[in-house]
């Protein structure tokens, strides 16, 4: 680890860039060296180390545990366009894994789920899945799909990409109309995620839409807020 003290780039920024590159390349995993060790390795003051590490903590690449040390944070996934969970993780080099929690092929009580779908006298597939990034559970997704749009859904591999299954029926998601809120986990959710009951979660509820903005299906999803984020753009149409 070399910090060029003759460079116009401040020493803490050089050290920060070195550590950030190591984190992205997975050279640094788990606990990083202490301030004293990094100071000795880089040949800089502990104040310089503290500033570099502090910025990486603020940016979410590192986190501190009082009395234990500083650790590399797990990657955070950002949903910023129409992309399936599987595709999102694969784009970041992380293998997606799915466990089916339940599958009901004859669900009819959509009034209890969403008033927008009430009054529709039809059956829905109800699919609830635990979505994981590698071995780490990060989301619980529950979707309600009309039978009429995707008959024989149970014959497909429901642990794979739902978007790919829908595409086989000639259906493409062109947009979403969702509500995003923060809340605490239920007992079941805390157990599935192996988290404390005061851990903040991100809840995303709403409809996925076709090219004419007609609803294709309703989804209710819960994500760990420290592993998942949504980027939303708002346009002024007036």
What can you see in these coordinates?
The protein is of the alpha+beta class and 238 residues long. Helix content is 24%, strand content 32%. α1 packs across α3 and α2 packs across α3 (46-58).
**Stretches with pLDDT under 50, minimum 5 residues:** none
Q: Order of SSEs, N→C?
A: HHHEEEHEEEHEHEEE
Strand order of the largest sheet: 4-5-6-9-8-7
How many β-strands, per DSSP? 10
Helix tally equals: 6
Helical fraction: 10-25%
Mean pLDDT: 86
Going by helix content, strand content and strand pairing, the class is: alpha+beta
C-alpha end-to-end distance: 54 Å
* Main β sheet profile: 6 strands, antiparallel
Alpha-carbon Rg, integer: 22 Å
Shape: elongated
Tell me the fraction of residues in β-strands, as a range.
25-35%
Task: Give the key terms.
24% helix; alpha+beta; two-stranded antiparallel ribbon; elongated; 10 strands; 238 residues
Briefly, what is this?
The mean pLDDT is 86.
What is the element layout, followed by pairings?
Blueprint: H1 11-24, H2 35-42, H3 46-58, E1 62-65, E2 69-72, E3 77-79, H4 85-91, E4 96-107, E5 124-133, E6 136-146, H5 162-168, E7 175-183, H6 187-193, E8 201-209, E9 215-224, E10 228-230
Parallel strand pairs: 3-10
Antiparallel strand pairs: 1-2, 4-5, 5-6, 6-9, 7-8, 8-9
């Amino acid at each position: 680890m070399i910090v060029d003290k003759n460079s116009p780039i401040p020493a803490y920024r050089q050290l920060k860039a070195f550590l950030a590159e190591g984190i992205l390349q997975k050279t640094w995993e788990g606990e990083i060296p202490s301030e004293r060790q990094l100071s000795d390795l880089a040949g800089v003051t502990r104040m310089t180390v503290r500033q570099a590490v502090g910025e990486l903590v603020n940016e979410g690449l590192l986190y501190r545990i009082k009395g234990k040390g500083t650790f590399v944070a797990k990657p955070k996934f950002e949903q910023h366009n129409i992309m399936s969970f599987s595709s999102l993780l694969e784009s970041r080099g992380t293998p997606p894994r799915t466990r089916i929690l339940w599958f009901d092929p004859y669900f009819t009580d959509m009034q209890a789920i969403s008033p927008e779908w009430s009054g529709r006298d039809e059956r829905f597939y109800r699919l609830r899945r635990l979505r994981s990034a590698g071995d780490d559970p990060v989301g619980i997704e529950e979707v309600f799909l009309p039978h009429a749009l995707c008959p024989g859904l149970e014959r497909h591999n429901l642990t794979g990409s739902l978007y790919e299954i829908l595409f086989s029926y000639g259906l493409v998601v062109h947009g979403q109309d969702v509500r995003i809120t923060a809340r605490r986990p239920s007992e079941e959710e805390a157990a599935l995620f192996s988290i404390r009951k005061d851990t903040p979660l991100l809840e995303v509820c709403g409809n996925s839409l076709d090219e004419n903005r007609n609803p294709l299906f309703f989804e209710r999803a819960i994500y760990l807020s420290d592993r998942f984020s949504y980027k939303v753009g708002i346009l002024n149409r007036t």
